[in-house]
Structures are given as structure tokens and as C-alpha cells.
Write a structure and sequence with these properties.
With 513 residues, the chain is α/β, with parallel strands linked by helices. It has 19 helices and 21 strands.
Length: 513
């Protein structure tokens, strides 16, 4: 566990190590059965100007809170699912899929007066043409009472609980009261015994309804965060600065110790109260979007991976990075799917040999430019990765659209830092840096300065961290010759690699942040 609590970077061994912890996670929420019907379109119907879809395949998968449970199980958690379904065919299909995945469904209440929410998506050639929702118009009180009665047993011994409240009614009335009674701090602020050492995560359409629970994490998307603030969000790249500017209001309205706002293609922004750590008030991740797929449920995957990582003791920032990687796995697939431990490890392993040659990198940069993207280049040793590095690289990413990191080769690090450096081989350093969501490309250079690489790539922005000025850098003249810009980012002396190594050598332990 100590190794996990100090883990600040992603590695391919990490998903397997988290699965070994096998935390018990209770998921409580609204069940959905996702139906994906796909076929061909050859004609329009005679009675209306509507295409006729000749259905060729019918697929069903657990959605909503059930999808969160499925993802947790696929990543190695011991999952208990608490929900309310009907006694219909959809409920049977849903439970069978959950049981096959190893999810404990003994706390799923079936009630004859309930309709199991089913969302049928009709598609052709990868395009969703229509969605049909079959949902309960009224949730039976008897079902809610039975669901509330099973909660104490479902929560007993849990390392974490995830509330998936999509407004479909499963977390109303007696269920809501039972959750608050067992998990909410009392009037004196004391934590109830039933919540001791239990991580509480709220994933809700209206997170403010659970503010009294004082959750450890709330995970609203942009629309849900806007509801918390009672205002509209700006579009595109303006959303992250807007969230950061309203951090205190979001924390207050959600009642959470930390809020992770998910922003689809723009990644996520994690906010914590000022004073948690001088450099830890916010943390950004960046999504890796590819060709558009008809994917659903990537947010459930994100919440599941985040919960597993935090329940197993991983630091929050690393947990968010891991959750982003898991979401990146499923968002590139059609339909509703899950990310397994092995798939996540394979995804992270794919960064291990990603250092590009100059020729390969130049080709990628040409493609990015043809798409109108702004290129940012930075360089450094990035030997022992720490929060100062990740903060700096996230700042660099925000200067453009594509971030290229040039790593000093092992020989050049020795020339700069001495014979006992680098601590990590250049291939390992490249793999760790490439795994960061803010980094798009990594290359290794062996020259005294990155000037030859700058002249080859001609980045729009050359970013440098530390207590420099542009006038102090040899690279400035090369950048300005072609019209580029040199930007100096924050210097974080207490998080320098040299300071980290000195603390390790003096104490024999990895320093805690």
C-alpha cells in the first residue's frame, strides 16, 4: 500500500497491482439496460419520409449504475450492486450480464410494479438514427422500502460506495434517508461509525442533492457542474478556466472534499480547496479523442477506475490520470463497454516505446499543422517524476493544441547532472512522460541544446520551466528567427528532482506530498 500511496506516475504494472487489492465497492443507483440495434438502410418507408432500418444485430449491455458496477468488476473490485428493477425481461437480461461479470446482485430488488429502464439505440453504418426509452413513470414505494432495508448489509465492510443518481427514482424516499442516516456526518460534524475509512463518491445529475453527505469525491460533467453553479457554461476551451474560476462555489455546492469535472473531449479538471497543498488545488487531464464512435458510458468507466484507484490508496492526481486512461480505452469503441485490467495495462504499455525519431515526429507535426493545430515544444530530463513536472507540463499543454516533450538522452543527462544521473533510463522516462494525458508526442535528443530540433519542427511556442528569462536561453534566438514565441512557466523549487533525491537520500524514504 505504501508504494501505491506514493505513486505519482502511470505504469503498465499499476492496473494489476490495483486489482490485487480487490477493494469491496458498493454501487447504489439507477439501473439501465442499453440496447444497441444495428442494421442496413436501403429504402424509406412508404407512409413517412423515414428510413427503414433492417435490423441485423441486437446487443444488450448494463448501463447507468449497472455499467459502473460492471467496470469496477472488470478492473478487479469486489462489487455489490444495490438497485431497483422490474420483474420483466429487461431485468432478467440485466442481472444475467451482471452475474456473469462477477457482480453481487443479491441486493438488487425486483418489484412487479417497476419497469426496468431500457434505452434502445437504432443505428446504421455507425450512425445512431433513433433512441427509444422505455422507463418507469412511477417508482413503487414498496420497492424503495425493500431497497432501503438491504442497504446496511450491502454497505457492511465496504471500502468504497458509489452513488449513481441519474434521477430515475431509485435513490429517492426511504433509500435516500437510509443513505444519509448511515453515511452523512452528524450535526456535530462527527463521521458515523458506519462510514469510517469508507470512500464516498457521488456521480449524480444533481450533485447538490447529496451535499449533506459531504462526499470524498463528486464527479459532475459540464452540464451537472453548471446546475451546481446555477449558470450556463461557456463552450470549448473556455470551460476549464471557467471551472477553475468557480472552484470554491463548486466545492461548496457539492459539499465534496474534491470535485472532478469531466469535460468529454477536453478531459477533466480536479479541484480541491486551497491549502490542501500549495500546488494541488487543481489538476488537469487531457482526453485522447480519435475518430468518432457511437460510444456510451465512458463516464461510468471513469468513475469506476477513479473509485478503484482511490479505494486502493493511490493519490488523487494519479487516480484521475488512471481514470482518464481507462475512459480513453472505451470511448474508442462503439456501444456500451467496459475496460478490463488487462486492457488498461495494455493501453499503458503502449506508451513504453513511444519515443519518436526526428523524422517520425516531423511527419506528425506536419499533419497537425495541416489541421490548424498550435504546436508547443518543451524539453528536459524528467528523471524522477514529481508533481512539479506534471504541473509544469499541464501548463505547457494549455499554450496550444499539441504538446511535444523532448527528453535529454542518458548521456546528455550525465553531462548536465553528474555521473549518478539519470536515475531512470531514457526509455523508462519516455514511457512515463508519454503516459501523461497532457503529452501528445515524446522524442529523445542527444545534442547539447534542443536547437536542432527547434529548427526542424519550428513549434509555435517553446516552453521552458524554471527561474529563467527568455534572454538567458540559447534557444530564444532560434525560436524568434522563424516567428515563434518563448514562454517561461512556473518555477517550483520545492518540487525539483534534485530536492526530491536529497530528501530520499537523507531520510531513506519517499517524501509524502
Amino acid at each position: 500500500m505504501a508504494r501505491l500511496s506514493n505513486q505519482e506516475g502511470l505504469a503498465d504494472w499499476l492496473p494489476g497491482r490495483l486489482a490485487e487489492e480487490r477493494p469491496v465497492v458498493t454501487v447504489i443507483g439507477d439501473s439501465i439496460l442499453d440496447g444497441w440495434w444495428d442494421g442496413t438502410i436501403d429504402r424509406f418507408c412508404r407512409e413517412a419520409p423515414a428510413p427503414v432500418v433492417q435490423v441485423q444485430r441486437r446487443d444488450f449491455a448494463p448501463g447507468g449504475a449497472a455499467n459502473t458496477a460492471m467496470n469496477l468488476a472488470a478492473l478487479g473490485a469486489d462489487v455489490r450492486f444495490v438497485s431497483l428493477t422490474g420483474e420483466d425481461e429487461a431485468a432478467k437480461t440485466l442481472k444475467e450480464a451482471l452475474e456473469a461479470a462477477g457482480v453481487d446482485v443479491s441486493h438488487v430488488i425486483s418489484h412487479p410494479g417497476m419497469t426496468t429502464t431500457t434505452k434502445f439505440r437504432v443505428s446504421s453504418a455507425g450512425q445512431v438514427m433513433l433512441r427509444l426509452d422505455d422507463a418507469a413513470t412511477e417508482v413503487p414505494p414498496g420497492g424503495l422500502s425493500d431497497m432501503a432495508a438491504t442497504l446496511p448489509e450491502a454497505l457492511r465492510g465496504s471500502s468504497a460506495v458509489v452513488l449513481c443518481d441519474y434521477g430515475a427514482g431509485a435513490l429517492e424516499g426511504p433509500v435516500r434517508s437510509a443513505i444519509l442516516d448511515r453515511l452523512a456526518p452528524g450535526g456535530d460534524g462527527a463521521t458515523p461509525a458506519s462510514r469510517q475509512d469508507m470512500l464516498v463518491v457521488v456521480d449524480a445529475h444533481h450533485p447538490g442533492r447529496w451535499a449533506g453527505l459531504q462526499p470524498d469525491l463528486a464527479t459532475p460533467n459540464a452540464q451537472e457542474a453548471a446546475r451546481l453553479l446555477g449558470t450556463d457554461f461557456p463552450g470549448g476551451a473556455a470551460r476549464c478556466p471557467f471551472v477553475e474560476a468557480h472552484a470554491e462555489q463548486l466545492l461548496s455546492a457539492s459539499g465534496a472534499a474534491a470535485v472532478v469535472v469531466t469535460l468529454d473531449r477536453e478531459g477533466t479538471l480536479t479541484i480541491r480547496p486551497q491549502g490542501t497543498s500549495p500546488q494541488a488545488a487543481t489538476h488537469r487531464t487531457w482526453a485522447r479523442p480519435q475518430a468518432e464512435k457511437q460510444a456510451s458510458g465512458a463516464g461510468d468507466t471513469f468513475v469506476a477506475a477513479l473509485t478503484l484507484a482511490r479505494a486502493a490508496g493511490l493519490p488523487l492526481t494519479t487516480s484521475v490520470d488512471l481514470a482518464q486512461a481507462a475512459a480513453d480505452v472505451v470511448v474508442h469503441r462503439p456501444g456500451t463497454s467496459v475496460c478490463t485490467t488487462e486492457e488498461l495495462a495494455t493501453h499503458l504499455r503502449g506508451f513504453a516505446d513511444t519515443a519518436l525519431t526526428d523524422t517520425e515526429l516531423a511527419r506528425h507535426i506536419q499533419e497537425h499543422r495541416s489541421e490548424g493545430r498550435r504546436i508547443v515544444l518543451t524539453n528536459g530530463c524528467f528523471d524522477v517524476l514529481h508533481r512539479g513536472h506534471t504541473r509544469y507540463l499541464n501548463q505547457a499543454k494549455q499554450l496550444g493544441d499539441v504538446l511535444v516533450v523532448a527528453l535529454n538522452s542518458d548521456s546528455s543527462v550525465r553531462q548536465l547532472k553528474g555521473p549518478d544521473r539519470p536515475v531512470n533510463h531514457e526509455a523508462d522516462r519516455a514511457a512515463v512522460i508519454a503516459a501523461l494525458s497532457c503529452v501528445d508526442h515524446v522524442t529523445i535528443f542527444d545534442t547539447p541544446t534542443p536547437i536542432p530540433l527547434i529548427e526542424l519542427l519550428q513549434p509555435d511556442v517553446y516552453a521552458k520551466g524554471g527561474d529563467y528569462t527568455p534572454e538567458m536561453l540559447q534557444e530564444t534566438e532560434a525560436v524568434e528567427q522563424y516567428g515563434g514565441t518563448v514562454t517561461i512557466l512556473d518555477y517550483v523549487p520545492e518540487h525539483s528532482t534534485t530536492a526530491v533525491l536529497e530528501r530520499i537520500r537523507s531520510s531513506g524514504e519517499t517524501p509524502q506530498d
